[in-house]
Structure formats: C-alpha cells, structure tokens
Amino acid sequence: MQKTTIRAGSNIAFIKYWGVADAAINLPLSNSISMTLDNAHTTTTVEWVERGLERDEIILDGKRLENAAAARLTDHLDRLRAVAGADYRARVMSVNNFPMASGIASSASGFAALTVAGVRALGLELDATRLSALARRGSGSASRSLFAGFVEWERGADDATSIARQLYPPAHWDLRDVVVVVSSAPKHVSSAGGHTLAATSPLNQGRVTSAEAGLSQVRAAIRTRDIDRLGPVIEQDALAMHSVMMTSTPSLLYWQPGTLEVLQAVRAWREFDRLPAYFTIDAGPNVHLICEADTVTPLLERLSALACVKRTIVSGPGPAPYAVDEHLF
Ligand code: PMV
C-alpha cells in the first residue's frame, strides 16, 4: 500500500442528471452528457493505515470533518474497503482549486479523485469503467469525471451497467465553460437531497422525456462542433430541470436575482451583438456560460459591466484523473 495523490476535474452537464430511479446506488432516470473541466479540480491524497487509527481522518480544504460531515466520505471509503476486502483506516486530505460555493460541482471532482486515489493506494488495478461505477456511488455526476473531454453517463439497469464513457477527447472541440458567480451563499438543499424529490414534481416525466430527446441532439452538436445547435438544447434542459426543482414538494428555488440578470443579458448579447454564448445552471444560483474559445474575451468584457457578477472562472475540456507527485501530507 502506498500513499497516492490524484487530481480530478469537475464537469458541467449539457443534458443533466436530475432524479434517481434507485437512490441506494444513484441509478439515474436517464443518460446525461457533460464536459470534464480543466480549471476546476480537486486534488486528494489517500493513505491507508493497517493499525493505530481508530477512525478515518478526513481534512477537506483545511478543515477536519467530524461525524455527520464525514459520513458521506466514510461511507465511500467503506465501499473501497469492501472492494479490497480490507479493514484499514484512511488518512485523506483534499483541496479544491475553486471555492466550494462557486457553483462548480465539488462532489463530482471530489468523489472521482477520492475513488481513484483510494483504489490505487490499496494497490488495486481497476479499469476506468469500474472506477466510474464506484465513483457514481459517492455522487452520480462523479461517474462522468473519470473520463477526459466529452462524456456520456449511460443510465444502465444496475450497479455494474450504470457507467460513463468518453464520447470525444478534449482536443475534439475548444469549448469553454465560463462560470459566472452571482452568489456565494451556501445552498440550503444539496443535490443529493434534491434527486429524491424530483419524482414529486408533476413535470418530472416530461423533463425525462425531453432530456432523452436532447441526448441525440447534443451528441450530434458535439460531433459537428456546432455551438448554435448545442446551445438551445442545453438551455432548454437546464430550464426543464429547474422547472422540476421549483415544482417539487418541497419546492427548490435555487435562483437569485443575479441568476436571471445573467440569463437575460446573455440572450440579449446573442440577439443584438451576435455573441454565440449559451447558459446552463446546476443546483445553485450561479450560471455556466458555454461558448467557443474565441468568444471568451468579448463575453468577459460584457460580464464585467454587470453589477451582480462577483467573479468568473473559465475552463476548457479537461483530462481524466491523473497522479500528482507532490502529496498533500
Ligand atoms: O452528482 P450530484 O448528486 O451532485 O448531482 C449533480 C446534479 C447536477 O449538477 C444538477 C446535474 C449534473 O448532471 O451534473
């Protein structure tokens, strides 16, 4: 067993994962498609200890996690222990290069990095498909962060078949995700809690049907590198997902005034300035603007004039999780 450090990118979904068919294994209601991000990542060091530690020690962005806060990670370490048939305790240290409340999914990069680092530190060799299924158990979207570039997570029928795979490598298309942070307040309902509420919305079945129709359009738009074909589909899917959220019981309303201001602005820039940028939104108030690389500069210029914009984070298509020589402890 060897101390191991892995860096994994977060990802932004073009067709979202929202709602679970089986919450115990994070089996989704439909496929989803995402881009892995090169400038929003988690770095995680794992060391397994045979004796002398009573419980797992987990430090996240400099803070030691105790009890309930540690439980989701300890549960995931249990899954890794089960694969190895071992009873070791773990020392885990993890850092994000982006603020947790920035609207970038730290659970995707976090569980991808923890899975790969934990498995390798156990001395096990699992392929990316198996690692993707394991990461999914920690956080559904983490299954997609096991692969570089453009990725599809197949719904599947059970634990072994609900896995992600690469559609295209990063070099296929120089796309950008410009995260527009309009609020850094922590969200009151995590996505993990929200997935189980989707079924309470009268709009849920309609959103699943339209997401399924959107998949082939998104695949085709990525294949032909066509931003004006991709854009309308991702905007519709994000709005459909938020409609489900808003009409769940209890209702989830993630938007802030700044969210709507950015949505209106980007549509106006498209219409009046011919600026090809399109929005998507995860389970939070911040907006992700998707565009090609040469649109980033004029887009950032316009965003800097909006009072609601606190900061921006720009990412391109990123790599699969990779080993880092410098350990965090
Ligand atoms: O993996 P989770 O449980 O954090 O869910 C992710 C949900 C969304 O970010 C809203 C959509 C997605 O597909 O990433």
The beta-strand count equals 14
CA radius of gyration: 19 Å
In round numbers, the mean pLDDT is 96
Number of helical runs? 8
Which structural class do you get from the secondary structure elements?
A: alpha+beta
- In which range does the helix fraction lie? 25-40%
- What is the top-level CATH class of the largest domain? Alpha Beta
Ligands in the structure? Answer: (3R)-3-hydroxy-3-methyl-5-(phosphonooxy)pentanoic acid
Can you offer a commentary on this structure?
The protein has 329 residues and is an alpha+beta fold. The chain contains eight helices and 14 strands. Strands 1, 4, 5, 6, 7, 8, 9 and 14 form an eight-stranded mixed β-sheet that branches. The protein starts with a strand and ends in a 6-residue tail after the last strand. (3R)-3-hydroxy-3-methyl-5-(phosphonooxy)pentanoic acid (PMV) binds at residues 13, 16-18, 32, 105, 107-108, 139-141, 191-192, 195, 282-283.
Features:
329 residues; alpha+beta; Ribosomal Protein S5, domain 2; Alpha-Beta Plaits; four-stranded antiparallel beta sheet; 8 helices; 35% helix; binds (3R)-3-hydroxy-3-methyl-5-(phosphonooxy)pentanoic acid
Write the layout of secondary structure elements.
Layout: E1 4-15, E2 20-22, E3 27-28, E4 32-49, E5 57-60, E6 63-64, H1 67-84, E7 89-96, H2 106-121, H3 128-138, E8 150-153, E9 164-168, E10 175-181, H4 191-195, H5 204-223, H6 227-246, H7 257-273, E11 278-281, E12 287-292, H8 296-303, E13 311-315, E14 322-323
Parallel strand pairs: 5-7
Antiparallel strand pairs: 1-4, 1-14, 2-3, 4-7, 4-8, 5-6, 8-9, 10-12, 10-13, 11-12
Helix pairs in contact: 1-2, 1-3, 2-3, 5-6
